[in-house]
Amino acid sequence: MTTSKQMDILRFATAGSVDDGKSTLIGRLLYDSKSIFEDQLEAVERTSVDRGEDYTNLALLTDGLRAEREQGITIDVAYRYFATPRRKFIIADTPGHIQYTRNMVTGASTADLAIILVDARKGILEQSRRHAFLTTLLKVPHLVVAVNKMDLVGYDQAVYERIIDEFTAFASKLAVTDLTFIPISALHGDNVVDRSPNMGWYEGSSLLHHLEHVHIASDRNLIDVRFPVQYVIRPHKSTDPELHDYRGYAGQVAGGVLKPGDEVVHLPSGLTTTITHIDGPGGPVAEAYAPMSVTLRLADDIDISRGDMIARPHNRPEVAQDLDAMVCWMTPDRALSPRMKLVIKHTTRTARALVKELHYRLDVNTLHRDETATALQLNEIGRVSLRVTQPLFVDDYSRNRLTGGFILIDEATHNTVAAGMITGAK
Amino acid sequence: MQRCDYLLSQLDVLEAESIQIIREVAAEFERPVLLFSGGKDSIVMLRLAEKAFWPAPIPFPVMHVDTGHNFPEVIEYRDRRVAELGVRLVVASVQDSIDQGRVVEETGRRASRNRLQTTTLLDAIEEHQFDAAFGGARRDEEKARAKERVVSFRDEFGQWDPKNQRPELWNLYNTKIRRGEHVRVFPLSNWTELDIWDYIRREGLELPPIYFAHTRMVFERDGMLLADISYANRGEDEPAFEATVRYRTVGDASCTGAVKSSAATLDEVIEEIAATRITERGQTRADDRTSEAAMEDRKKEGYF
């Protein structure tokens, strides 16, 4: 671990079950990057011995809850951190079995990259297809298929090639933007940090090298200016005349590049004005882009409040109360069905939403659309139409994850019950 | 700070994310409070809150849960920083909870007020009707904390239910609660110990002097160096000696260990931390050594 001014952050999600060697892989990445500390390793070793396991069970590092250790399962998304001199990494480690879809969708929502683990002996399984589909549904820009346990198939190139062919055929049905295959053995470290001498036929980079170098700067939307107003800053200091008139609109840039002097439009009013200043956390900035948190000052006195949107006059989001979206249902309490009313939270705006129609339920394993479905149960995904009580300023999720994503909240229990990805609006 | 390819450094990204969280909570809750101990994490959190609302003042008070077992340098720092920022300081005192019979002081040599803080904290949240409490906990600190949400729901008993947490997607946080319930908010969730130190260096933040090497009388207990102060209950078989130490974390002085160190400057401390092979909690917190699930159990009851 070292510090460096040039370091950026890569967020990635790992998908796969314990059997695929996911925990072993994460353990190895953490261990080889010196991010596992001695006292953590000792605690894991002690527990492994206590349980009569004849190896150091690195899964114990990520399974943080008592119930997880007792039952030997992972219940919830766990976040792990490691760094190399080039990058800081945030791993969203999503469990393989319980609540799979819900957790993977959660972990993938912020991920730049997803690693799907495939057991070289078993090839592409139903769950590999499910992982790949969820990765593309959440528009994770980069996908890595790590073909693991190559040591158990004699490092055979033919086995690896067969898996590539099979996966590629399936992936052609999905909107995969960047796909990389890497043959590895997490247990022995082949192609994890360094290129393996056991697979001379493999000409690509090691997994860590790929994670360190994959180009993510272009993944953000730097075209469509979107600035959801989060908070209005008015200091009201009568002692300081300069601050007395200060009125700033604070928020996190969701798209595009904003500069002082730019003409912008305020939604919902449709009034145009000009940015006079942009205040960043460290003082004035010349440009603001995602994911910066900044404060805009504008030339004209327009009535602007939280939940409003700043965009460009000739490039606006849809102003819509009718949305089409893919939703993932996340609660066991009750099912999603037509006529249901829920709270919707989209950017900084909260409203109420009515489920007008459930068009179909999608089988995440076969991609079959069941149009006879009348409800979505826990971990099911379907396409719905929603009617919202007030206009939202939206883009298609495929264009912008931040202005295209929303959550639904149960009005009675206050639980977050669904994640939604907008596919159309009017 | 900025580069021509629109890339941000890891500290800029973490800072932007934390500020977004702080603003969101200030906008959606009526009575937030920021938990401020005078430790490095809460110092960074307070700095982020200052930036989030600049040039306006921080729109919520800060609260110190005071065990009474303090390092005087930290209290002095706390009061000075609070005065600089012009924020209101609420002190919730564990001693008051003991005097009122709300909690019973532990006895014996290893008696600690650490666990008692939970009652004091929950009572203060109820008394002041706080509906959101910002805490400086990080996910890299401890394995139960790795499962924690950014905006984490607490029921009317202040309890955390780790198996039934609200999913968090994108930068959207569910802030719905009923009267009597509250949330804990962790803006530093994705920061590591090293990020905190890098940020302190970048921002030129002042820290209480105990974070840097100094000489003091200490004694050894359970492999940790504890300060020889009255409430540590040093036994006759635990000889005190002078050592050059610094603190890696700042907590209750009776159960927070010092580490032997000659790192007297920020650069030296960062160098030392980058090279260390032991976690900060494992090295310096007696309370987390009780059992493998010590933190999880305390968190379920409503601990920080």
UniProtKB/TrEMBL annotation, chain B:
For this protein, the record's Pfam families field holds: PAPS_reduct
Q: What class of enzyme is it?
A: transferase
Q: Does the keyword 4Fe-4S apply?
A: no
Q: Which InterPro entries match?
A: PAPS_reduct_dom (IPR002500), Rossmann-like_a/b/a_fold (IPR014729), SO4_adenylTrfase_ssu (IPR011784), Sulfate_adenylyltrnsfr_sub2 (IPR050128)
Q: Where is the Phosphoadenosine phosphosulphate reductase domain?
A: 32-257
Q: Does the keyword ATP-binding apply?
A: yes
Protein's name according to its UniProt entry? Sulfate adenylyltransferase subunit 2
One GO molecular function term of this record is:
ATP binding
Q: Which residues form a coiled coil?
A: none
| Gene3D superfamilies for this protein | HUPs (3.40.50.620)
| Recorded superkingdom | Bacteria
Family membership, please give it. Belongs to the PAPS reductase family. CysD subfamily.
For region Disordered, the annotated ranges are 280-304
Q: In which organism is this protein found?
A: Actinomadura rudentiformis
